[in-house]
Design a protein that fits this description.
It is built from 19 helices and 25 strands. By secondary structure, the chain is an alpha/beta fold. The strands form 5 sheets. Strands 5-4-3-2-1-9-8-7-6 form a 9-stranded parallel β-sheet, covered by helices on one side. Strands 11-10-12-13-20-19-18-15-16 form a 9-stranded mixed β-sheet, sandwiched between helices.
Amino acid sequence: MTDYLQLATCDYPEHVPSDRPAVYAKQQRELGLTYVRLAEFAWSRMEPRPGEFEWAWLDEAVDAYAAGGMKVVLCTPTPTPPAWLIRAHPEILPYDDQGRVREFGSRRHYDFASPIYREHSQRITRAMAERYGQHAAVVGWQTDNEWAQGDTGRSYGGASAAAFPGWLESRYGTLDALNLAWGNVFWSMEYTDWAQVKPPILTVIEPNPSHVLDYYRFCSSLIASFQAEQVAILRELSPGRFITHNFMIFESSFDHYEVAKGLDFVSWDNYPTGMLEFFAPSGQGDDVKTHFARTGHPDLIGFNHDLYRGLLRGQGSLGRQGEGTPSGPWVMEQQCGQVNWAPFNPLPARGAVQLWTAQAWAHGIDVVSYFRWRAATMAQEVMHSGLLRHDETPDRGHAEVEALNLALFPLGEVRASVALLHDYESLWIYDAQKHSSSMSYWTQTVTYYMALRSLGLDVDILHPDADLSGYAVVVAPALTLVTKAWAQKFAALSEGGTKLVFGPRTAFRTPGGETWAEGQFGPLSELIGAKLLQYDSLRPGLIQNVRYGESTFAATGWAESYRLEGAKAVASYVGGPQDGQAAVIRRGNVTVIGAHQQELIGTVLSELLMNAGIQVDSLPEGVRLSRRAGRTLLQNWNPQAVKWQGQTLAPVSFQVLNQ
């Protein structure tokens, strides 16, 4: 028996009269939905006063959804500590990066380091798990909601500031070791007491990047341990149910690989049109945003699908999930109409909801859950759409979901021959000193991903610690921080025949955040056969031409050149201060691209992939191919029809083809 993509929705019985869940459950099953997610923001209704629980409303709702044939995913309600708790313990509140307290009145208003809040987090988690942990309809749990949403992944005062020195002492042992690791002799920043160390904010000019890197590590570890406390309780009291968390689009403030440990699978929240407003593709601005305004950009969405599909690679399922429960990643919140939180919030194109759903399946998602069932009639999200309008009539997204043919979407593996490497510590240290305002870790990394996708390839996004055997090509766009262990691993891969591609600023930093004393490429120098010669930060309008074969490309943002020590130059700079210097180099199976230019990157990758025996298809802008379970998804994300390989692709549409 073949399993197929399943559908779900997010619902809020605390927002509506008590008779509605029974009605909604029937409607949801009739629409073809299987799961409903509940209660992530409902703490004040569960416990309106300290120690006084009111469960009747949730009991009735869970039973109503169960009676209607829906499977229930419950959430720990810790993203929204109630007013009585905050007013009794204001020390729970977090601090922003200007050292100001962030107040009650929204969500995520807590400091992960607060011992008081951790006690209450465990208490409410235990209370929920004791009541619902073995309910027949409850098949899984979501921890909290959207770690770090609203820049809440790091608190820069209060409990976090108090705990940071102890974390450093545990990590370094002595102040001498800390001062040496951070290079604190520079600018007389040496510490003589652990209590002197504060969060890296409000310095006269930029803080020490090593200080920043360790503070980010510390804050990430807080999120990981906070979640682990909840997971332990849920494992104890709700055996046989899955545990997941709904991560976010391009969230950067914690190490997702670390935080995801202990989960059964990863979920994420997909809002394509809102995402586009904040993460336009590299070097492209309002024109691209306008072109894809009603669909979002396929590669921005695809990158997140592939990132979260690979986040737990090799860990396997930790919980004993119920029979028939998908074990792959979920989209826990899928946009199904307008969002309310971007600078502009256009109505999605007709067909967009189906296209988003199909793409999710093709990138390895097992369940798509639409946010939300009924549009909110109150508070901050009244402008956000649902499958039902405010008056409970079906909205356009509802019609598109109703028309889906789930038999088109069998579950199975996504088999990619290319791996793209991604690392949060490299992200943190890269962005701590960008050196070019038009560059960032995401800009550089997503540019390489877009180049691969434009060649019609499926891509696995993995951490460098993952098993990379079996990949013909491994692309590492922005591993600014490289360990000696990774260097040994890359050397073994190259020796075994894997083709490696590195981008600018590779191995510029040590794990401590300094540069290597022997210079870039540090422990990769012998493998690459070169050293950094110069780097050039290019302001908007300032370009550096690169000659590759018979073509010339105009690099923007960044251009670095190399002193060859065994490698060969396969492209050189033309004109400018780096005239004649090596821009792209190769030694054996290792290639380094030093210039930031998407067409150049695509050309180099295309030739290298073909030499590795991998078929490439040069796709039109906005047309993408994805493959899963023996089927190919052909997608047109453009607002107009596109001709490709003798056929006309309708605007905002997809076709499922047998491979």
